[in-house]
Amino acid sequence: MTQPLDLQAVSAHYGTTKVLEDLSLSVQAGELVSLLGASGCGKTTTLRLIAGFLTPTTGSIQLGGRDLTRLPTHKRDIGLVFQNYALFPHLSVLDNVAFGLKQRGLGSSERRKRAMAMLERVGLSALADRAPGALSGGQKQRVALARALVIEPPLLMFDEPLSNLDAKLRVDMRVEIRQLQRSNGTTSVYVTHDQEEAFSISDRVAIMNAGRLMQFDRPEVLYRRPANTFVARFVGFENIIPFKVVAREGDTVTAETAGMTLRLSQAAYGAIPDTFLLATRPDGLMVSTDPAAEGLPARLGLRTYLGRAYQYQCETAAGQLIANGSLTNPLEAGTGVKLVPMPEQCTILASEGTR
Amino acid sequence: MSDRPHPFLIVVTALVYLFLMLPLVIVVGAALSDTTYLTFPPQGLSLRWFENIFEISAFRRTIITSLQIAFLGTMIALLIGIPAAYALNRFRIELPKWLGTLFVLPILVPEIVFGFALLKSFTVGTGAPIFLSLLIGHTLIVLPYVVRVISASLASFDFSVEEAAISLGSSPVKTFFTIVLPNIRAGVIAAFILAFITSLNDVSVSLFLTGPGISTLPIQILAHVEQFFDPTVASVSVLLMFLTVAVMAVVERTLGLTFLAK
Fold first, then answer.
1. What protein family is recorded (chain B) (predicted)?
2. CATH of the domain at B81
3. Chain B within 8 Å of A87 (Cβ-Cβ)?
4. Chain B CB within 8 Å of residue A308 CB
5. What pLDDT score was predicted for residue A212?
6. Chain A contact present for B233, CB below 8 A
7. Euclidean distance between the first and final Cα of chain A, in Å?
8. Each residue of A206-260: pLDDT tens digit?
9. N or C: which terminal CB in chain A sees fewer CB atoms within 10 Å?
């Protein structure tokens, strides 16, 4: 039942505005893929294209070898879970869940049996006769989930399903969604703007920006090895410093930025091109008071307390950088320090002409 | 803080009700009078002026015409107005703003001007039968109410519910009937009542469109008053009141009126 989804060079326009450009994306059978990005990045457009509420201007959409591109929505056989639940207000919980089965021509006793079994799975069989209006947000989303799953669709899609729930419930529900998805093995596309949510439940995450796919990979790779400055900033690499190589000496590279030089080992960083960007999170810059340390000279500015560390705004010749320092040794503003990049927490990006 | 309303509030409320109800009481009283002229309080009690309505054939005919026009006009207005309101709301972003305003125009133009315009352009222009002219005129004056009331209902309808149904395999047309319509039912009923009563009570448009042999009840009442001063007018008015109340009562019994307060 589970099928792969394949988007080939899909573009979409809204009027004359291009909202999606040349998107190619392959979701393997049984995989959960998240589309992640800020609002307007094209993630919801992508979902609506796959669902058939929008038609692409170019490109094709295939599900298990079936061409969906021009197929009307009601013939696509896709389970959808909406942000605002979208339950049928005039039908009972049971009838909501049974709705898709009715469209498939199942008899009423069979519908009831399957819908009840599905409600059982989401833990709501006791509420089968309630009206949707009488349910809490979490319960509504479970009904919506049951309604989408009961038709056993080859593809399940989620449109920001948890953003109307409170923080605690959000975490519980995403675990529940992941468990149901895993045990059913249904190919799934999950749209969200919440990075933690996307990373925690997805096999792979597609990070999107301005209608383009920026990077598509496993969360572990995205988090540690962003492919470009957009993704780097998105996943929290707040320091992005442009460098130019001035000398190579065996494994060691000497690079220069704003008059400061830094010696980097290619054994630790991988191959370093002649011009590059050094990207790191605040945790990746060690604050050292040792004047002989191999780092960028900086003057500490504002110190804030993060609980696990102190964070410093640091003034350097290359502009402001952000670094985290140890809790045991709080430093005063104005202290001259060295910021030492830690290779395992840094990544080297190709220069992009931006910044 | 007490749960009991302030005495002043009770007095004001009572006065407002009195102000609203008193004219009706007077009309009912006058209708029951045994005299051959309009008077209040009634002198002697009699139902003969009610009987008189049905003895005057013009009243009999116009009551039927009025009910026919009101019912058919409302139905046609619903047939046009529901899809129009649906499209205006569903494609709110895609459609130009003035399109919605277009449907309100018939009540923005003074009705008397509207009636005259219809007479000049349609009845005289095409030589259409009077009944048809009346029907078209009434359909047009109630259409704005239908579109407005149903739009209000659709404004609170979440169209992702419709999308959910379609994604579950229900065709768009089927979805409209099984999902959208049941959820705007209250609006449709409210629109029906409002349109029906508006049509039933209309004078200005009908004034121009009625003609030899065919008239509506309010126009017949006017014509009658011009010639006679007997309590028949009062009893017809009472009848019209009861027709309105009957419509409301039927709706209340079958569906409940609470939705009108929503």
1. Belongs to the binding-protein-dependent transport system permease family.
2. 1.10.3720.10
3. yes
4. no
5. 94
6. no
7. 48
8. 999 999 999 999 999 999 999 999 999 999 999 999 999 999 998 999 999 988 9
9. C
Between B160, B166, B179, which is nearest A74 by CB? B166
Looking at residue B261, its pLDDT comes to 47
* Structural domains counted in chain B: 1
Whether residue B118 is predicted with pLDDT greater than 90 in this model: the reply is: no
**Which of A89, A90, A100 is the closest to B168 by Cβ?**
A100
Q: Chains A, B: CB contacts under 8 A, how many?
A: 62
ipTM of the complex: 0.85
Give the best residue of A44, A71, A82, A143 to mutate against chain B (max B CB count within 10 A).
A82
Backbone CA torsion sign across B28, B33, B37, B40: negative
- Which chain B residue is nearest to residue A156, measuring alpha carbons? B167
Name the closest residue on chain B to residue A83, using Cα atoms.
B160
Given an 8 Å threshold on Cβ–Cβ distance, is B167 in contact with A99? no
**pLDDT given for residue B35 in this prediction:** 82
Name the range with the highest mean pLDDT among A147-151, B51-55, B127-131. A147-151
Which among A75, A78, A84 is the nearest to B158, CB-wise? A84
Cβ of B160 under 8 Å from any chain A Cβ?
yes
B166 in A contact zone (CB under 8 Å): yes
